[in-house]
Amino acid sequence: xxxxxxxxxxxxxxxxxxxxxxxxxxxxxxxxxxxxxxxxxxxxxxxxxxxxxxxxxxxxxxxxxxxxxxxxxxxxxxxxxxxxxxxxxxxxxxxxxxxxxxxxxxxxxxxxxxxxxxxxxxxxxxxxxxxxxxxxxxxxxxxxxxxxxxxxxxxxxxxxxxxxxxxxxxxxxxxxxxxxxxxxxxxxxxxxxxxxxxxxxxxxxxxxxxxxxxxxxxxxxxxxxxxxxxxxxxxxxxxxxxxxxxxxxxxxxxxxxxxxxxxxxxxxxxxxxxxxxxxxxxxxxxxxxxxxxxxxxxxxxxxxxxxxxxxxxxxxxxxxxxxxxxxxxxxxxxxxxxxxxxxxxxxxxxxxxxxxxxxxxxxxxxxxxxxxxxxxxxxxxxxxxxxxxxxxxxxxxxxxxxxxxxxxxxxxxxxxxxxxxxx
Length: 423
Fold this sequence. Notes:
single chain; alpha+beta
């Protein structure tokens, strides 16, 4: 089981996809922090004028007051070649939205990581369920095969007695029919085992062509302090991943309100630039540079009430998340009570079936002994064998139900990954 869980943690396709969400959240944090860092741009542009632009000036400016009024003279306004290069630097001095978003991005990353942990727990639970289902199918198949062997052995004994005249034809027919009636059940059990193995391969992320061998068995290991409901509920309130995710989401939603409120506040940016340009009809450029620095202040005076709507929507998100948290809180308590009841019921069934198997085994031996001495009937043997088989099947089913309920309990309390040493 532990090998299967560790393999699934590394190869399960859904889990690997959720890991990419964590990496995307990490990139979002870097992107958000980038908004508070300086920004430096470089631009360069070269122009080749096919036809040089002109500037129209009144003739009186160039030729004096004697020039004809209303006339203009076209003068070249550039050269054949020109270039313009610039460096532009900007730095946020104050922007409440940016600074709040930086803290919110970290919380968003925590949400993504908690979601990843939750999916890890659910992946482990799915592997555990499919593994135990395969074990149940395997051991059921083995029990039915053993039952078939017992029935075949009984048929051989009855047939030998019938051949020697020590048993009637009815007993021989009945023992043979019992064998043939059991064969389809054995075949069905083998088919269910094969299907269960394929389901386990899918849960692990293994190709269906791979061959796997289950090395565990359905063993009953009772949980200590199974009746301590308060302790399990306390652990769930503290460690359940879905509940922790909602707690973190509440913090993200609170930050969202502050981000939208920041739209009412001014933003202050520092800027600086350096420009270097030149022109020439040849490539012997006449060039010059200029530079400047300054502060830019921007204040939102009115944006059509969009900021108000955003703040209101963010507050509604807070209320919605809080309702989800309260609902999940109640649901977790109910689920823990239910799982603990399932554990107790399965435990009682296991203990009862243990005694039943002993009695059924004793009854089967007595039925065989009675028949061999001519006191019993073939019907008694068939009934005793069926009772023994059903008792064994009932017990492994009870152990299976116990293990499934135990896995559900560990998942609800957020401790399932610790059980398999993958945290």
